[in-house]
# Entry
Amino acid sequence: MKIVRVNMDTLQASFEEAPKEYELIGNRGLIAKILLKEVPPACHPLSARNKLIFATGPLAGTGVPTAGRLSAGGKSPLTGGIKESNSGGVVADALVEHEIKAIIIENKPKGAGLYALVIAPGKAELVPCDDLKGLGNYDTHRKLLERYGSKATVASIGPAGEMRALAAGIFTSDMEGLPGAVCARGGLGALMGAKGLKALVVLDGGEYTIPVKQPDRLKEALKKYHEVIRSTPQTAQVYPKYGTSPTIMTFNALGGLPTYNFRRGDFEFAEKIGAEALYTTITERGGEGNPTHRCMNGCPIRCYNKYPDSEGKLMVSPIQFETLAMLGSNLGIGDLDAICRLNCLCNDQGVDTVEIGVALGMAMEAGLLQFGDGAAAAGVVEGIGKGEALSRVLASGAVVTGKVFGIERVPAVRGQALPAHEPRAVKGIGVTFSTSAMGADHTTGVTFREKVDHQKPEGQVEASVRAQIKHAAFDTLGLCFFVGTAVQDPMLTVDLVNAVYGTDFGEEFWVQIAKDTLRAERAFNEAAGFTRVHDRLPEFFREEKLPPRNLVFDVPQEEIDRVWSELLK
Amino acid sequence: MKIVRVNMDTLQASFEEAPKEYELIGNRGLIAKILLKEVPPACHPLSARNKLIFATGPLAGTGVPTAGRLSAGGKSPLTGGIKESNSGGVVADALVEHEIKAIIIENKPKGAGLYALVIAPGKAELVPCDDLKGLGNYDTHRKLLERYGSKATVASIGPAGEMRALAAGIFTSDMEGLPGAVCARGGLGALMGAKGLKALVVLDGGEYTIPVKQPDRLKEALKKYHEVIRSTPQTAQVYPKYGTSPTIMTFNALGGLPTYNFRRGDFEFAEKIGAEALYTTITERGGEGNPTHRCMNGCPIRCYNKYPDSEGKLMVSPIQFETLAMLGSNLGIGDLDAICRLNCLCNDQGVDTVEIGVALGMAMEAGLLQFGDGAAAAGVVEGIGKGEALSRVLASGAVVTGKVFGIERVPAVRGQALPAHEPRAVKGIGVTFSTSAMGADHTTGVTFREKVDHQKPEGQVEASVRAQIKHAAFDTLGLCFFVGTAVQDPMLTVDLVNAVYGTDFGEEFWVQIAKDTLRAERAFNEAAGFTRVHDRLPEFFREEKLPPRNLVFDVPQEEIDRVWSELLK
# Structure
């Protein structure tokens, strides 16, 4: 397969053979290796030295379900550390059809011009697109599909990314050609903006497929794989019907749903934004709504959904748990329509709903807005593209918001805001947040499905390490982690690799690729100036009791330090 | 002598005996030792765990000229590292008259109330002063002197400090009872604000003096000391006549005067803001103006001045080189009145003119204001207390301004903006900025008076180390560094200590107290999460040629790394 190397200074793109050593890895693991090799870890994230990388996985397009995740990565403008963020959608599969394993965006354009990187069969070209300047992601996708055909797929930034707002994400095509599949976290949209790249456009017409060495073996492995997904209630019934929204009531019951700027773990209006309310609203309104849907071809899980307004017109797609919580309970907003409107605005402006959700919560507590005031929050989000100063502050994320407004209590680790997993109530995730190279990021190791008493300090370090390894393995193979809810036996996945590549790995392959990824990320961060001192949650999680259960985060720091001194070293 | 320990939680203050080990040190050195012992380096700077320390020096009130510097220190809200910032003025001498070596402000108040710490003979008391909320430093000082008598001295914060703006300083009484002597850098005003402390008020009536063990020896040593000051042109003629303003034309000639946001090293209107223009304007306008003046009793140098408006009414006092450059040439403002008006507003709102000068320069280059537009800059500074979002961003300093507006080119090191010393033209200061625990801070080691070719990379590391040691020694004895321009032989100073304390130290004492201070600061920062990776200037200083001499900073990084691996380890 190929790597496309794009020089934004000379505006040239060239193809090179992907090194053999990268054959069996992709996505997050591939990004970590390339960054460690090619980017000076101490560089300014917005500088020409940083690189933006898009990567696909080794099983994409082989018929393995959910293997078409698209990863974006680079030195994070938000955290100053390494960052990989991945999305579903259809862009990665389209890239693989053009035999593209990864795209490496280098340098910076000389002027302030904006470009689209257009991938056609055997060709990659930078096309000026100043006419898209300032456009939201919805219009950007629409215009690019008009220009390049409805079968093209797109990854774009909104005004937030163009302005290099630290909370900006990258918004990629879902199956309807809408920008609903998001590489949201870590400010990679700001990195794309700093490169002068408004969009990646992948034209239809690629004909490459990754050759399967042992098709019968793959068939057999896939059968087992599907069987496990079908026989696990979460992947067979819950996700397909409700998407990720049931976690609202689960966390509410655990007393761990971020509410009113992480002041409570339960929300008086939780039911109004929970799974049943969401499902009922979508089905009763009908129209363009759909409670269950795929974001990529062949996904058996279908956690995606389409939320219609009261007239049945599509409002946003998808609405997921993290957003329901961070733009809902965390802001005291108990109204699905208000949350979905905010979500739509965030997508259009191009910011991560988690990062700006936390920043909005802090601003509400500081009295700059009122809790529960969805209209005011919407005004702030709409103000990003208008360059309003308050909007720009909040679009710079939680840490900057804390600095500008003199706020001590900042729910963030290593520069990144906490997602909707309260580490006082689900303590293992606090270990993940503390030790992951990505900062506070649930996608690097959720523990709430691990077998451990979530509210006791014991066993959390081991639970987090297990989760971090599992996530890193899935992410390095480009698989959606929701499959991981069902797939407990690593060999179910390793067998897929063995079949496609004719290898005979055992479980050690799985652990190896995961640890390689984690270690490369840690090495990058160390060289970027992070130390063990950064491996900790903000003080208030240890000091401030979280109602209603009055929990604090009490996993001893020396236990947490074992993650990197023993368990992952 | 005593240490006053103030608990802002219980609102109690108590006196304790200063440990004997602190007898011969003060100010910056004392602060470093106390912080390293008492403050967890990884704590949030605005948290109850951080402490704000005021410290005096071992020679204050003994007749040694300039020995009455007041230091403030703590973990810096701006940089996240250790910070000490000192001012002239009369507060330190007043504290010593109450036998106070240091004041340690601990914890935080329970509510949002504001307090004044009032020091009276044998007594220290927290007095609510909510009536001063939101007041500028000028009104704050005026009201406190009305309340506590015109002989009281004050250290206060303005609205910026109350709002915990990261660029907030602490403004202390000069000899006229005006807040012109400033502990400006590192955001210690934000720390004072986080403690709920609006002001420190030292009442008249203290009768303590540090006992002089060998008065005759002191007389002899002082004679030599004064003789050197009198026989050095800089301290005998230049400072007394022009203050610090001649550095404008010196740096302009070297091509190292920060101009137009560090884009040039010379300014077409340099003469308009230089020493002769300043001197002529002050003397011609007369009235309350005065080109030469003391900020503290007995100072033979008199670099302070009073700048009158066109009616002869006092506009600001003093106007110093750093401010002339950072609010002048760096903003393209070639008008003394406009600069002095900005300086006055900064003092009143309570922000560091260097930090906000750099932030304003960045904002001007980003198109948010126009270069040269003093009125617009004044509007931004006035907006701080009004809570205007853009003002709050800029009052958060250069790094935050860069993050909010997606600016790669941020003239700052370790979180703190560069003062008016261009490291491309005076390369030794670049080594100081890179390696000092304080970040970019000229007061930790200016090299432009060192004997070295400033524009060649050779010898800069040694020049910086010499300067850093000298500054640390002066700062640890509480002496104004401007004396250091004359005092080349350390024994001139060590003899003063020997006379006062009856000791018989040689030059090694000088080096010892300096290195102890530097190492304690470095140790604090390491424990706060700083590494060698942070020991570097922003990339653009190495890459971007500075007109008119087209210089880059080219001291090799491995040479710079020797500062802490060999020279100061």
Summary: The interface with chain A takes residues 41-44, 46-47, 49, 77, 163-166, 190, 193-194, 388-390, 392-393, 396, 400, 403-408, 410, 527-531, 533-534, 536, 538-539 of chain B (CB under 8 Å). The two ends of chain B are 32 Å apart (CA to CA). The mean pLDDT of chain B is 97.
